[in-house]
Amino acid sequence: MSQRIRDFLRRRDEDGPCVVVDLDIVRDNYEAFARSLPDTSVYYAVKANPAPEILSLLESLGSSFDCASVGEIEMVLATGADASRISYGNTIKKERDIAKAYAYGVRLFAVDCVEEVDKIVRVAPGSKVFCRVLCDGVGAEWPLSRKFGCDPDMAPDVLEHAHRNGLTAHGVSFHVGSQQANLQAWDFALAMAAGVFQEMALRGIELKMVNMGGGFPTRYLKDIPGVPTYGSAIFQALTKHFGNRLPSTIIEPGRGMVGNAGLIEAEVVLISKKHDDDAVRWVYLDIGKFHGLAETMDEAIRYPIKTPRDGDATMPCVLAGPTCDSVDVLYEKTPYELPVSLSIGDKILIEACGAYTTTYSSVGFNGFAPLASYVI
């Protein structure tokens, strides 16, 4: 926890859980990506945390933006960023939303099938498109291997269809899975991308760009390689598969940009057992799956948790949220070791919560307020 966040929480007197994000850490993260991959354009994944203060900071640093909806596009444009710095990276778009993005000046769109290409042909003529290919996501804690993308063998047909219908077949994209700890994941994906480039060249169409997606992790309970290590591995894979004719490249950090910049302060509401002789306690917090901690689903993301009683004797605890929904259990398969002295009313800190928390918070399930957010 940064000193700035520590000072903010000491002064805060409002009730209820909150997430606090330190912009100085976001700035450091952006600069690390820019240094580690100096010839690659950074397109911040807005969905990770669209707080206006974060978007404005990144705009001032020269970042571009990966947007999943017209709403996110409008948030970016509100910072003063030019539409040329926006990629409409969702492969599932309403035709009227494509038209609206085009009217705003967006000219870069993701596709993964000819049907999506046809929408763009009709309402965004002359635009650039890149085709997302499937990636298995092995090594990722939050895989993204099924819903988006097409088989690499199908991508040339999608891109040629775009080219024949007046669009610019610009390139290929992939996503190696969120919180990707396997440095070799990009090597496998770039080999696929190079194969698509080669097939398109045989068809007389020159691709120009590879969008290498996100996947850059933040530190939770396990140590992770630093951004420079990822940068080195990616550059080696690029030269291995593309030789001296490197394409222009994009990365889309989201979690890696803001994850470690924020934490959640929450309160212990109840501590109990289900049976007198249980060796495991249940610890209920005033925040749960419906208030920003959706990524605890299947216990995929395991956040570091700090208590005011760390150092005391511990026992295993199931962590759960406050709502009356039975799925609002955070960690049960693998309970957390928490202090036996932990008490009702204690404030705890859930670290590395800068990404995918406010955007997953409900508007008021069970009447609980959405997660409060502060950017400092």
TrEMBL record:
Protein name: ornithine decarboxylase
Pfam families, alphabetized: Orn_Arg_deC_N
Gene Ontology biological process terms from the UniProt entry: putrescine biosynthetic process from arginine, via ornithine
One Gene Ontology cellular component: cytoplasm
Domain Orn/DAP/Arg decarboxylase 2 N-terminal: 26-258
Cofactor annotation: pyridoxal 5'-phosphate
Active site: 324 (proton donor)
